[in-house]
């Protein structure tokens, strides 16, 4: 999720303690810093964009990572507030961090919550990285004037009901989409929040023949098909491309990858697409592997959010 939503969740979490909200209250400081800590992995960008892409939402967003973050935060706060309970500070910092990786797990980008047992990102695909309605439901109880503990309970009840309703709507949408494809042909289906509109779902359907990308609404069953992609036969070039660092990155980054080949300017290129994000007739995340005259990978590039990043081959 975005930093603002994480911060609001952290402060609301500390409100469950019943202590008054104060900028110098060590419990609120611990919970707030804990709610932000997993994203401190942005510091790895100092070592370059490649390092950041590989480390973001990885070990820092795991349970072992949370223990480290909570210990560092608790120790730092205890240095300035020696009269506070070190164990209590650790608990609230850990709770704040847990709220962070839980909310990241529920959004479409996911997190490596089972690291080091599983290094790929896992996602529940219920929320976008920024969900304005979720933020509104978290903040609205604060205007009630109720004691902070009651405000916190109402805020989290709102979140629970909201995510529960989204889950039910998604289950209904998934059931409807499955009816559009023969059960003998269907292999996988992904339904996730649309990046374009709040009350819409984007979907990827994998069949034995290929992939269907489209969009459908929360409250109606009309389906808009955006693209159909046939499955590509495996070739020597495809197999070589799958051994590259760029292909390994896509294997970690997305469960729905698509490979295609293209001859361009005398070179053979292999393109990799993240099928989850398709907007304005193009993919938000895609990769290009350029092969030399010996049909070996020579250069690799990641195209994401309008940026072009060179990968080691």
Brief digest:
With 313 residues, this protein is an alpha+beta fold. The chain has helices at residues 3-15, 26-36, 49-55, 63-80, 86-106, 132-139, 148-178, 236-241, 245-253, and strands spanning 186-193, 200-207, 210-217, 223-230, 257-264, 267-274, 278-279, 282-283, 285-291, 297-304, 307-311. The protein folds into 3 domains: 3-165, no CATH class; 185-230, no CATH class; 236-311, 2-Layer Sandwich (Alpha-Beta Plaits), CATH 3.30.70.
What features would you describe in this structure?
The protein is built from 9 helices and 11 strands. It is an alpha+beta fold. Helices cover 40% and strands 23% of the residues. The protein has 3 domains: 3-165, no CATH class; 185-230, no CATH class; 236-311, 2-Layer Sandwich (Alpha-Beta Plaits), CATH 3.30.70. It is globular and about 70 Å long. Helix 1 packs antiparallel against helix 2, helix 1 (3-15) packs across helix 5 (86-106) and helix 4 (63-80) packs across helix 5. A hairpin with a 2-residue loop joins strand 2 and strand 3. The two termini are 31 Å apart.
């Amino acid at each position: 999720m975005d930093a603002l939503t994480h911060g609001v969740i952290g402060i609301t979490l500390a409100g469950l303690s019943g202590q008054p909200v104060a900028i110098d209250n060590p419990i609120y400081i611990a919970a707030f810093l804990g709610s932000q800590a997993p994203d401190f992995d942005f510091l790895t960008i100092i070592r370059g964009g490649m390092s950041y892409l590989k480390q973001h939402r990885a070990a820092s967003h795991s349970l072992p990572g949370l223990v480290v973050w909570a210990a560092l935060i608790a120790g730092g706060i205890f240095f300035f507030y020696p009269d506070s309970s070190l164990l209590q500070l650790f608990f609230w910092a850990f709770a704040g961090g847990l709220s962070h990786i839980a909310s990241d797990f529920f959004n479409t980008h996911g997190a490596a919550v089972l690291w080091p047992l599983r290094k790929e990102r896992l996602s529940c695909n219920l929320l976008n990285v920024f969900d304005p309605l979720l933020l509104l439901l978290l903040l609205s109880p604060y205007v009630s004037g109720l004691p902070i503990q009651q405000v916190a309970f109402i805020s989290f009840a709102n979140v629970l009901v909201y995510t529960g309703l989204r889950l039910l709507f998604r289950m209904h949408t998934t059931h409807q989409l499955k009816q559009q494809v023969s059960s003998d042909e269907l292999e996988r289906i992904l339904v996730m929040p649309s990046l374009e509109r709040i009350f819409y779902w984007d979907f990827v359907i994998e069949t034995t023949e290929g992939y269907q990308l489209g969009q459908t609404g929360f409250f109606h069953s009309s389906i808009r098909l955006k693209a159909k992609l046939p499955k590509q036969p495996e070739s020597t070039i495809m197999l070589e491309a799958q051994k590259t660092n760029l292909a390994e990155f896509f294997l970690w980054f997305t469960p729905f990858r698509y490979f295609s080949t293209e001859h361009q300017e005398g070179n053979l290129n292999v393109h990799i697409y993240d099928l989850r994000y398709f907007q304005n007739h193009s993919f938000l995340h895609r990769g290009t592997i350029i092969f030399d005259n010996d049909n070996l990978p020579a250069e690799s590039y990641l195209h994401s959010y309008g940026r072009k990043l060179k990968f080691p081959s």
